[in-house]
Amino acid sequence: MLDYQMRAIDCIRDSAEKSKTTHQEFMERICHPFNVDVNMLVGNVLCKPITINFHPDRLSNNMTTIIDNLIQQGVYQGQFQTGTTNGGKSAYIGGDRFVWEQRLFNNSYPQETLERPKYGALNLLMYVDGASARFGSSFLR
Hints:
This protein is mainly alpha-helical. The chain has two domains: 47 residues; 93 residues, no CATH class.
């Protein structure tokens, strides 16, 4: 793993650690009236898979389908690298998503890198087509 990726992970961990007590208290206030054990609830949530949905037949910016790129490269490429999206189209250096991610990850990613976070969704309800079928008919788990 690259140094900036480790810094981004550390940034997320630090942020989560700082707000852990506040979030724990919030969860206890919500769960208490229903006699729900917060630790059991969190444990049940954490054992669910994260899925990354994608459209395998979409063309990447190299005019090859996403699935063919995945097979050839053996790596799932993010929106900054492929130029494909089913959401906002601001994944370029200087775009809204770029600025948002720089803020979110405390400028951990170098300004010029296209190696950015890849996003998935928690498949809490165990949908057979992944947690975010809107973002693609196929998914990685």
